[in-house]
Amino acid sequence: MTSKKPRLLTGDTPTGRLHLGHWVGSVENRIALQDEYDCYFIIANAHAFTTRMDRPNEIRQSVIDIATDYLAVGLDPKRSIIFIQSEIPAIAELTFFFSMLIPYPRLMRNPTIKDEIRDKNLGDNYPFGFLLYPVGQVADILAFRPEIVPVGEDQIPHLEMTREVARRFNQLYCGVDSHTEDQDYLKKGGLFPIVNVKLGRARRLVGIGSPGPDGNLLKMSKSLNNAIFLSDDPDTIARKVRSMYTDPKRLKATDPGTTENNPLWIFHEMFNTDQKWVEEAEERYRQGTIGDMECKKRLIDVLVELIEPMRQRRMVFEKDPGQVLKVLQEGTEKANVVAQETLILAKKAMQQDYF
After folding, report:
1. Which CATH architecture is the domain 234-314 placed in?
2. What digits encode the pLDDT tens for the residues 184-203?
3. Whole-model pTM?
4. Which residues lie closer than 8 Å to 27 by C-beta, 6 or more apart?
5. Which CATH homologous superfamily contains domain 7-200+321-349?
6. Predicted pLDDT at 215
7. Most distant pair of Cα atoms in the chain: their distance
8. Helix (H, G, I), strand (E, B) or coil at 34
9. C-alpha pair distances (Å), 47 with each of 7, 301, 331, 343
């Protein structure tokens, strides 16, 4: 693996098909960066077992769905490596070693853990593996020693933990001084880079449904049934947009409406390239001179224009699932070379290279 490009890693836990939240959170960045970086995209199927250990068939199908979506949206296996997490043994071994570098109280301060327990109504009914998966995410990333990780806002706590583990490992096992600047760890003899985070243009895309019990809009999620998928057909998109939550106080088209925290306008601002129309329509909405349905019809056209080419490409790959599996197999073989090299170097640094 002798690419001179800086390395990039990111990916998804297979919980179903990709939706618009994935697109603006990370996926469009991945596509744009394929020529600039040596790209690795992980489908983190082992993490899916933390909440769905009783549904292995569903997880398997989700892996294929995610891989098909990757190819449909424009991730090119000739320029990027797409691979399956559970087929990279080095990740599991690194997870064990890294778990020694993260105190339990630090793990429980991770706000993403708390959010998922709340959003998925897990209560106290979750396996130990659920608490282990943030450590696994650290290993997913550091196994490939990337320079950059494009993610959505909800993944920032995991990336900060990754940075902490990289610093700790480099200091403890590679002799790097703790006062070293992040960008200088490799120059000073460290094994792991202190990764940089690249956020998408939407830090957190809301779903199309009603707010949660606290009155705040919920993020787009398959499990919350409030998502528009990158594989939805035009009729499905139209149905979902027509049902979209807007301003509940606006009972008729002539009532003044609120555009703030209104999914209809959040989506227009995010996806409608005709920003002049958006600005004028928002003002008319506030004045009560334009109706919700007119604005929703415009949004339907915008989203169909974005999604339909992806859906058409997806239909081609769906007809040849063997090709999708071939891409995954070839990508996984290449990813194993890099991860195994990292594991060998890590064990050498830890003085655990016996043979």
Report:
1. Orthogonal Bundle (1.10)
2. 999 999 999 999 998 888 77
3. 0.90
4. 18, 73, 230
5. HUPs (3.40.50.620)
6. 86
7. 78
8. coil
9. 23, 36, 19, 20
